[in-house]
Amino acid sequence: MKVLIIHGPNLNLLGKRDSSIYGEKTLEEINNLIKSRASQLDMEVEIFQSNHEGQIVDKIQDIVSKDYKGLIINPAAFTHYSIAIRDAIEILDVPVIEVHLSNIYKRENFRKESVIVPVCTGQISGLGYNGYLVAIDALKIIE
User: Residues 22, 68, 129, 132: which is the catalytic one?
Assistant: First the structure.
């Protein structure tokens, strides 16, 4: 089972951002935990990070022509306004899980709405890096 993981803008700065919101782990550390969990479940993961909306859309569109069985995406700030990412996800025929390190519903009002989640299978918010691991488990279960 091959799964694509997408990290959105500013997640490359994890470990330098407010640790009370985003935790202390770097993106590299989180990616290593993701790879380890996927390996335990006999899953293959491809991990991609970009600060650019168009690159994320292009990567999502790759799912259509490749043999991915699921998508885990943390759209970060794009969560709240990217119709382009939403539209790219909407055409997929694989399970999609939106993940957020922080609980977006406990934050500023503008962060409480996701334009992405209505086209996703589910959302995990507020579990820190563990949200990615739970998302991997969920994709394996619904495979």
Answer: 22
pLDDT value, residue 23: 87
Q: Hey, how many other C-beta atoms are within 10 angstroms of the C-beta on 13?
A: 12
CATH of domain 2-142: 3.40.50.9100
Q: Is the pLDDT of residue 65 over 90?
A: no
At 26, list the tokens: 């770097």
Q: Is 105 a catalytic residue?
A: no
**pLDDT at position 111 over 90:** no
86 marked ligand binding residue = no
The structural domains of the chain, with segments of one domain joined by +, span 2-142
Alpha carbon distance 133, 99 (integer Å): 10
